[in-house]
Amino acid sequence: MPRLPLLIAGALVLAAAWHLGLGPSAAETARVIPPPAQDDPAEPAATASIVLAGGCFWGVQGVYQHVQGVTSAVSGYAGGAKETASYDKVTSGRTGHAEAVRIVYDPRKVTLGQLLQIYFSVAHDPTQLNRQGPDVGTQYRSTIFPANERQASLAKAYIDQLDKAKAFPGKIVTTLEAGQTFYPAEAYHQDYMTLNPRQPYIVFHDLPKVESLQRLFPASWRADPVLVSKTGM
Fold first, then answer.
1. Per-residue pLDDT tens over the stretch 95-121
2. How far apart are CA 110 and CA 72, in angstroms?
3. What pLDDT, in 10s, does the model give residues 208-229?
4. Is residue 225 assigned to a domain?
5. What is the CATH number of the domain that holds 33?
6. Torsion angle of alpha carbons 159, 165, 171, 173, nearest 10°?
7. Per the residue annotation, which of 56, 123, 203, 207 is the catalytic one?
8. Residue 228 lies in a domain
């Protein structure tokens, strides 16, 4: 798991980036946003799931693996056909797939609204169209794949709320794509942040997101990530 020295290393890299004039374009900046006005109350059900896409799945997975109430976060692909759900095909940008993460959670411990607030606040920048940081293409689009109409309704209401409140400097471009199948990614993509904490991309783009999660959502933070190596896909 990312330890404090690694987070400090990430901060040093960010400081160097600012010195070189790279600024937040090189590492997305977290933003304080209001919670959703509409949310699902705590439910007796022990499990629910939603699929979220917001750029490279390494970072999105890494963020949600540190969220209280999340029982599984698996990197994968959604939006295209089963036959093209592989990394070498998805990277072409022509499959319809987005790099995505299937998040399984306990609704008694974390609500959909809380997961969406983290998604828009620290997991990615929802105003970037078909890109995230240095990654460009429709496979890096900002997309919510709702599991049902209730999830879709809550997500749309929250997007409208954030746009109306001008929570971001630009309009949210996140799309809703219902009825799509999620396909787990190759094993070497799973738990990537935890297994490769010193990889430059992770240090520069993803560890800052985890640090922002801990800083902005302390009540939702869990130090020990929930790993695919333990939960399975």
1. 999 999 999 999 999 999 999 999 999
2. 13
3. 999 999 999 999 999 999 999 9
4. no
5. 3.30.1060.10
6. -10
7. 56
8. no
Quick check: 47 and 70 in contact, CB under 8 A?
A: no
- CA dist 231 and 228 (Å) reads 5
Question: In angstroms, how far is CA 112 from the centroid of its own chain?
Answer: 13
**Residue 18, in any domain of the structure:** yes
How many domains are contained in the chain?
A: 1
- CA 178 to chain centroid, in Å, comes to 18
| Domain ranges, residue 185 | 4-219
Looking at the predicted structure, is the pLDDT value of residue 171 above 80? yes
Closest CA to 118 of 170, 50, 185, 192: 50
Question: Is 56 one of the catalytic residues?
Answer: yes
Q: What is the pLDDT of residues 183-207, one digit of tens each?
A: 999 999 999 999 999 999 999 999 9
pLDDT band at 15 (very low <50, low <70, confident <90, very high): very low
Decide: 182 and 51 in contact? Cβ < 8 Å.
Answer: yes
The reply to whether 226 falls in a domain is: no
Q: Contact 8/209 with Cβ under 8 angstroms?
A: no
